[in-house]
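In response to reviewer comment 3 from the previous cycle, which asked for concrete evidence that the modeling workflow produces usable outputs, we include below a single protein chain processed end to end. The sequence was submitted unchanged, and the resulting structure tokens are shown without manual editing.
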Amino acid sequence: MTNELNQRVELWGMTDVENELEEVDRVEKKIKDIWCKILPKHGKISKIGSTDLEEVNLSLIIRCRKLSVKNPSIDMFFKKENQKYQVIDWIPDFKNNSFLDFSCEVTYE
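The workflow returned the following structure tokens.
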């Protein structure tokens, strides 16, 4: 199964940073690069009003090794080639418990 992890993506998350007013802000920060398998799940194209603008919502699954993402959280997201894949939820691989499947969503306008 690990030979199918052929896509390299960046794992990002929200971290707490203290600003100049000594307040705690949450900012996006790259955690690390990981190897994964990207599986398309569902796509939908919708028109915005009566204009020629279209919005494309794409759902996909990102499968990676459980050891690559130690503490998954809902505020994590993946980036690949300037596309942001927002994490909706995740589920472990119940067969051998060595992989995580992240359900993600990306929107193109």
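The mean pLDDT is 86. We consider this sufficient to address the reviewer's concern, and the full set will be provided in the supplementary archive.
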